Amino acid sequence: MRTAGHDANRRTSTGLRAHVVVRRPAFDLDLDLTAGPGEVVALLGPNGAGKSTTLRALAGLQPLSAGEIHLGDRVLDRPATRDYLRVEQRPIGVVFQDYLLFPHLSALDNVAFGPRAHGVPKAPARAAAQSWLERVGLADVAGARPRALSGGQAQRVALARALAVEPRLLLLDEPLAALDAATRMDVRADLRRHLSAYDGTCVLVTHEPLDAMVLADRLVVLENGRVTQQGSPAEVARTPRTEYVARLVGLNLFRGHTDGAGEAGAAGVVRLADGGELTTGRRVAGEVFVAFAPSAVALYGSAPGGSPRNCWQVEVVGVERHGDLMRVRLTGRPPVLADVTADAVADLGLQPGARVWASVKAAEIRCYPA
Ligand SMILES: Nc1ncnc2c1ncn2[C@@H]1O[C@H](COP(=O)(O)OP(=O)(O)OP(=O)(O)O)[C@@H](O)[C@H]1O
Questions:
Q1: Is residue 47 lining ligand 1, measured as CB closer than 6 Å?
Q2: What pTM does this model have?
Q3: Residue 53 C-alpha to ligand 1 middle, in angstroms?
Q4: Coiled-coil ranges per the record (predicted)?
């Protein structure tokens, strides 16, 4: 278990502290990003959110419009004081999604390129490269050119090349995106091992929630140029605060208001901002989020008897396969996603336009302050 990332003093004196501001005519990025030594932070967000722009700014490929980037006691970019370290002067290693290995160089020389570019003489640079290839399990392909390598091997060479300069900041841009599913799983596990052993700061950009959950100590969610949520992977998954995060982790999410009053027991009624109400198992007063899994939603052909709480009429919009189950998209107050069996889809005739009843138990609904 790494703890360096939670050590605020070390974080400010030796890690990354950045206020990244990039203004373009149709886009405005403004985020604070802090990460300690040994900490892996994943930037997660939809297309066009500004993830790559942030990474490029940290790398020195995109000058800031305002703000500042500090790494340890070095200033990498600060427009106000005209400080700007060029990419080759920054103590960073970068792995891009398409690897960008030099096609005419062997794996060994690709890895040795980094130390060479930092002024290390040829023989020690090659010795360091050999040792890095051994660490990533590729000593036997040292002489191979990139086109002779598999996707997973090329990715490992790219990682070895980035680490061979002993960077204080490692930047990974969709590092697993180019791999097929099976290779991806192996390389993800390897990458996690290498990142655990790495004592510098790592910022990783990904679209893929699973990569972020497995690799990162902390998630920073970026939407439309702003941070909308951050926290440990478990916190973010448990308590999404935006539609995007809720969809990512596969939860139904609603914003609402409760006065904290409820029926006997601990239940609280939440009036949802977009209509409808839900009774939750836990009483929280004020502005709240309520979230529940699609698997917690039961569908019925007619209004179920008994308790009328959390039971409302919905209309099927679409059905798609989701793992072993079928995910049904429903409109209503509120609209919901429900995971049901293929048998249930057939029995209830869940075609688009079909009207059914949705129900969810109060105990299955999480409620937390907004
Ligand atoms: N070189 C550029 N010049 C001008 N605009 C750009 C440039 N690169 C990106 N943009 C724009 O800046 C915004 C942020 O893009 P960016 O690539 O940082 O987002 P992203 O979160 O990495 O998206 P994706 O996941 O699709 O890669 C988008 O509106 C994009 O069209």
A1: yes
A2: 0.81
A3: 6
A4: none
